[in-house]
């Protein structure tokens, strides 16, 4: 976390060290989401650039990894949309409405008595 504070203060060597620590894990994450290849490498590079540009926004420092992974995830989704492999579906009230019914008396009659009283 000290590296992040140093990088936020303008220390390029601290940012370089952060970059070296984070990039391999981000690359693996991106590869799992979109596969390997040029597109994945572009996403990794875009992620690290976005991380650099937003260093000043990361507070508290403990959230740094989550912040970088969120950037990577969003960049992956963007890449998948461009490839046509990820589609967001519009939601309306009818599509989201879920009807849940639970008949407790019916369920109770199907449960053996021993289970109901917590015995054996």
Describe the structure.
By secondary structure, the chain is mainly alpha-helical. It has a domain of 82 residues: Orthogonal Bundle (Rna Polymerase Sigma Factor, Chain: A), CATH 1.10.1740. Helix 1 crosses helix 2, helix 2 packs across helix 4 and helix 3 crosses helix 4. The protein is extended, with a radius of gyration of 24 Å. The relative contact order is 0.10. The mean pLDDT is 83.
Task: Write a concise keyword list for the protein shown above.
single chain; mainly alpha; Rna Polymerase Sigma Factor, Chain: A; 68% helix
List strands and helices in order, with pairings.
Blueprint: H1 2-8, H2 12-34, H3 38-53, H4 64-83, H5 93-96, H6 104-110, H7 113-116
Helix pairs in contact: 1-2, 2-3, 2-4, 3-4
Unreliable stretches, pLDDT < 50, 5 or more residues?
none
**SS strand fraction:** under 5%
Biggest β-sheet, characterized? none
CATH superfamily of the domain at 2-83: RNA polymerase sigma factor, region 2, helix turn helix motif
* Reported CATH architecture of the domain at 2-83: Orthogonal Bundle
Structure summary:
With 120 residues, the chain is mainly alpha-helical. It has helices at 2-8, 12-34, 38-53, 64-83, 93-96, 104-110, 113-116.
């Amino acid at each position: 976390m000290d590296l992040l504070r140093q990088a936020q203060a303008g220390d390029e060597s601290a940012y370089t060290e952060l970059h070296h620590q984070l990039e391999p894990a981000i690359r693996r994450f991106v590869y799992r989401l979109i596969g390997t290849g040029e597109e994945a490498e572009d996403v990794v590079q875009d992620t690290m650039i976005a991380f650099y540009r937003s260093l000043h926004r990361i507070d508290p420092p403990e959230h740094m990894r989550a912040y970088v992974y969120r950037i990577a995830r969003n960049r992956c989704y963007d890449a998948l949309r461009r490839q046509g492999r990820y589609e967001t579906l519009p939601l309306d009230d009818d599509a989201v409405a879920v009807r849940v019914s639970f008949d407790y008396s019916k369920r109770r009659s199907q449960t053996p008595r021993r289970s109901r009283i917590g015995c054996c």
